[in-house]
TrEMBL record:
<dbReference type="GO" id="GO:0016787">
    <property type="term" value="F:hydrolase activity"/>
</dbReference>
<keyword id="KW-0378">Hydrolase</keyword>
<keyword id="KW-0460">Magnesium</keyword>
<protein>
    <submittedName>
        <fullName>HAD family hydrolase</fullName>
    </submittedName>
</protein>
<dbReference type="Pfam" id="PF00702">
    <property type="entry name" value="Hydrolase"/>
</dbReference>
<dbReference type="InterPro" id="IPR050155">
    <property type="entry name" value="HAD-like_hydrolase_sf"/>
</dbReference>
């Protein structure tokens, strides 16, 4: 059944690949002290392979250098461990069982590959990661970087736009989004593009605004993304449908939740 509103994420959803994450890690490595550089790279590779206590799906407390397990449906901390994986007593920590607020600087959700180099660099003493992130974004629009469009995605989005409402909502800024959409040949395919969305902090607000603006019900709305905390859990809590794109299925099983490894697995069935 065709929904009345589809809300798409961009990074990790409408394009694939991990080369840009590795490039980001290399740029950050320039700021890592030489005496811990070997450990930095060992940790990063371990994190990518899912063999480190910090991996996609966790959260990272930068100030306390702690790795947090968050209940995605309540955003409460249910476990905290140090970099080596040793459990900490939640009763002695300030957040305890409180709802966590992600601010992209102090407590960050490791929802996709962008945050692995960031957390690894922070643990190894790098103070300013943002400039290296900007360098990576600039690299992604050069001829050196190949961003391969997902086969079949453009005609699918074009057909979907003719039939219903489709919105792009991303944490990337306006300039980055414009360049990426041009590179992917997806410019002009969305009824609306929301940039610098500050997900997950503002996800609920944007979802509510879009539902009201397009005059639809939550159950008639679908959120599509690769970050469970940013795009999926908020949608499910509001009664929306959701499509979670990730190599590793989430343990949550609900009728309104579809899980796929690649977005084409979903849109080819629509």
């Amino acid at each position: 059944m065709l929904a009345k509103l589809y809300i798409f994420d961009l990074d990790g959803t409408l394009y694939e690949g991990t080369d840009h994450f590795d490039y980001y890690a290399k740029r950050l490595a320039l700021d890592v002290k030489e005496e811990v550089l070997t450990e930095y790279w060992a940790d990063y590779e371990s994190m990518k392979n899912g063999n480190h206590p910090l991996h996609i799906g966790k959260a990272y407390d930068v100030n306390n250098d702690l790795i947090l397990t968050i209940d995605p449906m309540t955003l409460k901390v249910i476990e905290a461990v140090d970099w080596a994986g040793t459990k900490k007593n939640l009763d002695t920590l300030s957040y305890g069982m409180k709802t966590v607020t992600f601010d992209f600087e102090n407590i960050v959700a490791i929802g996709d590959g962008w945050w692995l180099p960031f957390a690894c660099a922070k643990h190894h003493g790098v103070e300013n990661c943002y400039r290296r992130y900007l360098e990576t974004k600039e690299y992604m629009v050069t001829e050196e970087f190949e961003l391969t469009p997902i086969p079949g995605l453009k005609p699918f989005l074009k057909k979907l736009k003719d039939q219903t409402n489709i919105v792009l909502m991303t944490n990337s800024d306006e300039d980055d989004v414009g360049r990426l959409l041009k590179e992917l040949d997806l410019t002009g395919l969305f009824h609306e593009v929301i940039t610098s969305a500050q997900k997950p902090s503002n996800t609920d607000n944007f979802f509510n605004e879009l539902i009201e603006k397009y005059g639809v019900q939550p159950e008639e709305t679908v959120s599509i993304g690769d970050n469970f905390i940013n795009e999926i859990a908020p949608a499910l809590l509001m009664g929306m449908q959701a499509v979670y794109i990730n190599e590793h299925p989430h343990p949550t099983e609900l009728e309104q939740l579809t899980q796929v490894k690649r977005i084409h697995e979903w849109f080819e069935e629509q």
